[in-house]
Amino acid sequence: MDIWGLALLGILIVISPGADFVLVLQTSLNAGRKAGVWTALGISVAITLHISYSMLGLSYFISQNPTLFAALRYLGAGYLIYLGVKGLLSKGQTLHIERRKTEEQSGFYYFRQGLLCNALNPKTMLFFLSVFSQVMMIDTTSQTIPMFYGLYMIALHGLWFSAVAMLLTSDACQSLLLSAKDHINKLCSAGLIAFGASLGLLG
Hints:
The mean pLDDT is 83. The chain has helices at 3-15, 19-31, 33-56, 58-63, 66-89, 95-104, 107-119, 122-138, 144-168, 171-177, 181-202. It is mainly α. The protein has eleven helices and no strands.
């Protein structure tokens, strides 16, 4: 696969629905635009971690160590289930209370939430392991292409999920989604639990 094919693959991976998308959706609806953007930034920074250890070869070491990989898998699954259960338990709160609680939370709270959601997902780690093995084969004499591709993926995640947060908190979307907010929150929470269960049980 050439660099253009890998660039297209990156776009398809980023925009495909997954735990990150569900988390940004739920956070933006419940806690507002700033919280959604902070979550997006956390996801973007988590990508730098995946890229760093992929380039260093650590992801291959983790994937070949069953005990370490299983521990990471269960940790990631547990965190997704925790986020889902937390969302279900807060489903009865009104929008006014949610907004007031958001103002009391620091941006780092949502940044950390996005960071952990992505960083603890071993499927993302395996994706970057497979992709960067392809990127490095394009030019085995230099790290320039892998570095630029890494920056591209970081920017892609940050821009896409920030755009999702901005769109969902626009006046037009808010008027459409506000009446269904509680149902969407339940669906997102159930989705996070399902992603976590799938990760823990199926790998």
